[in-house]
Structures are given as C-alpha cells and as structure tokens.
Specification:
By secondary structure, the protein is mainly alpha-helical. The chain is 72% helix and 0% strand. The longest helix is centred in the first third of the chain and has 36 residues, at 4-39. The radius of gyration is 20 Å and the shape is elongated.
Length: 211
C-alpha cells in the first residue's frame, strides 16, 4: 500500500530539485551572457563559463550540450524577459500615447539594470549571425519580443491611434530608435543620462506612429 505522506515528500523533493536546477540554469545563462558580451562569443569557452559559475565542465554540459545551444538559449531567455515586460504594458488600460512612453521607459530600464542583456544582443546576436543560423533564423529566438510589439502595433491601429502601416517599418521605428539610443548610451556618447531622454524619444516614436 502506498504511503500518501511518503508520496507527498517525494513530490516536494522533486519540486525542490527542479527549482534548484532552474536557478542554476539561469545563473549559467546570466554568466555566459556576461562573458560572451565582454570577451566575444568565439573568445569564450565552455571551461571559462564553468569556472565563472563554479562548476565542472562536465556538469555544465548536463545543462547545455554545446556553446552554440547556450548562445541560442540566452537569446530566447532575454527575449522572454523583455517580452514579459512588454506584455504587462500591452494589458494595461491606458491610451497608446502613454503605452509608447511605458515601452521606452521599460526598455531603457532594462538597458541600465541589465546591461549585459543589451550588450549580448548588440555584440553577439547581431554580430555573430552564423552562430544562430540553425534553429534561430529570422525572429525565431526573439519571438516573445516580436509578438508583443505586433500586439502593441495592432492594438494602436484598431483603436485608431496609430496609422495603418506595414509591420517592419513600424517595428523599426520603435526598436531601431530604442536600440540606437541604448548603443549611444553604452558608448558614452549621450549628453545626458539615458533616462533623461524618455520623454523626447517617446514623443518622436509617437509622432512617427500616430494616425
């Protein structure tokens, strides 16, 4: 006869192990993201990552089968994090003008609070496209962000607050502007702190999108 209390303990232990493994997985992703951004993809090895995390190389391969797989997983994880922030904005009951401002603020906050994430996108994902050619083609690895931007634009058009235009030009207006500002910030070329440009950048994007 199965002891229900023993089964409950087994379930709790399994959940705990899964939680520990997920935290370690995220630690690996953050560490690899930082190293790839600082040293470059090709100059960073799996032993480098394992040493930085404080684990054996063999154990690292239990989480990720290759450096290429890890690189793709980082991009998808970054996309999910950013996409989740954008999703929450999309679900808010505010006008599109305010949502544009929220999009800009959220993106700039990520750039400041998680600089390695933006650096990874600019210095690894965009530069080493050959690494992402298999299984990460096009927008496959950044689907979460693309989806939320599509929802954002579609909502604006349906509400009559955005003019009807093709997705790619509209997408470039938003992400190209934000990416450009973050790049200038990282290079130390801005006259003011990045957050001081929220209103001006928001207004530029709004004017380019509004009906």
């Amino acid at each position: 006869m199965v002891n229900p209390e023993l089964e409950d303990v087994k379930i709790l232990l399994k959940m705990k192990r899964q939680g520990i493994k997920e935290r370690k997985r995220l630690e690996i992703i953050r560490t690899a993201c930082r190293l790839f951004s600082e040293k470059g993809y090709y100059n960073t090895t799996m032993p480098d990552i394992a040493q930085a995390v404080g684990m054996s190389v063999g154990n690292l391969y239990n989480y990720f089968e290759s450096k290429e797989e890890l690189a793709k997983e980082i991009m998808m994880t970054v996309s999910d994090w950013v996409g989740e922030k954008l999703r929450k904005i999309n679900e808010m009951e505010v006008n599109m003008h305010e949502k544009v401002r929220m999009f800009v603020r959220s993106f700039f906050e990520i750039a400041i609070e998680e600089p390695e994430l933006i650096s990874y996108f600019l210095r690894v994902y965009l530069v080493n496209r050959e690494v992402f050619s298999d299984g990460c083609e096009g927008f496959a690895c950044v689907a979460s962000v693309i989806t939320e931007v599509m929802v954002f634009l579609s909502d604006g058009i349906e509400k009559g607050e955005f003019r009807n235009q093709s997705f790619y030009p509209a997408f470039t207006i938003i992400m190209g502007t934000l990416g450009g500002m973050v790049f200038l910030h990282k290079e130390g070329l801005l006259d003011k702190h990045l957050m001081d440009y929220i209103e001006e950048v928001s207004e530029n994007i709004w004017r380019a999108l509004r009906a």
